[in-house]
Amino acid sequence: MKKSIRFIINPISGIGKKNILPELIQEHLDHSAFTYDIVFTEHRGHARTLSQEAAEKGIDIVCVAGGDGSVNEAGTALINTKTALAILPTGSGNGIARHLGLSLKLKSMIQRINEYKLDTIDTVSLNSRKAIGVSGFGFDALIAKRFDEYHTRGFLSYAKLVLKEFRHYEGISVVLNDNEEYSNLLFCSIANTSQFGNGFYISPEADIKDGQFDIVFIELPPIFGFVGLLISSIRGTVHKSKYVKLVQTNEASIRVKSSTAHIDGEPIDFKDLSINLKSNPASLSVIV
Ligand SMILES: Nc1ncnc2c1ncn2[C@@H]1O[C@H](COP(=O)(O)OP(=O)(O)OP(=O)(O)O)[C@@H](O)[C@H]1O
Q1: Which of ligand 1's atoms lies nearest the C-alpha of 265?
Q2: Each residue's pLDDT tens digit, 175-219
Q3: Which of 8, 9, 10, 153 to mutate to test the pocket of ligand 1 (most atoms within 8 A of CB)?
Q4: What class is the 3-116 domain?
Q5: Strand partners, 267
């Protein structure tokens, strides 16, 4: 029997053209194996509703075309359901897709969907919210918030913003498990995957299938140290930096002073400043 796919396309993700996607799908999807429908998202949160609806209807695959924000919306709606997630990476950073080793070429990625090779990955709960890739508190959350207010997306806008904001940044403190205080931090990341996107690693050895996540504390460095951190992030050696402390666990609590956070790169405000973190092992099927 043919498998069913719902394609969910975020038209504003990244900087490439998404309106050619229906044509690419028509051309390269194996129509002897799959039936499909295509829906474009119209607002924030729409991918979540569309994905949830697909799972309720028993659709086999939700394929989201977007960046990590869209992957979060569509993917977390499929946790512990029979519907698998596929990704067509059309975002600005595509951290989750890169971590999973997916092709960034859309034609190749559609051809990979034809092969229908499934794997199971972990997700992470932050109180009632769910993450797939990297979430965090501090500078990265501030950047996610500012980037969201920007009118242009893409890597260059992102890089400009990071350098501008770093100059005035004052640092945060985080209490881990009610007893270990980390102060003067640039940020604290909760990494289920290895990178933010665009090859900027935060926890190069993170494994999305080990039932654990990494809490990464980055001390606020001077400007030359910040540049060094960026370089080691690209080189994949950031976990060895003197500014970095990494704690691997499957469950923890953290207390933060500011509610500004991001989940998979999307800015959010936590109402509660005490956050329980928990790994949900093997909770999501993905096409790899
Ligand atoms: N039609 C729409 N109009 C405005 N926002 C939308 C629309 N559809 C989806 N969104 C929102 O766009 C945001 C950004 O999407 P996404 O994360 O996929 O792209 P990106 O930010 O370019 O990529 P990345 O996260 O990889 O850097 C998400 O919060 C999503 O909910």
Answers
A1: 25
A2: 999 999 999 999 999 999 999 999 999 999 999 999 999 999 999
A3: 10
A4: alpha beta
A5: 262
**Does 129-281 carry CATH code 2.60.200.40?**
yes
68 lines ligand 1 (CB under 6 A): yes
How buried is 264 (Cβ within 10 angstroms: 0-12 exposed, 13-18 middle, 19+ buried)?
A: buried
Query: Ligand 1: distance of its center to the CA of 147 in Å?
Result: 11
pLDDT per residue as tens digits for the range 132-166: 999 999 999 999 888 888 767 677 877 888 888 99
pTM of the model: 0.95
ipTM for the complex shown: 0.96
Ligand 1 centre distance from Cα of residue 77 (Å): 16
- Cβ distance 217 to 245 under 8 Å? yes
Instruction: Please state the domain extents for the chain.
Output: 3-116, 129-281
And the tokens for 160?
């400009």
Find the 44 Cα to ligand 1 centroid distance in Å: 7
Interior angle at CA 201, CA 197 and CA 207, nearest 5: 95
66 CA → ligand 1 middle, Å:
7
75 lines ligand 1 (CB under 6 A): no
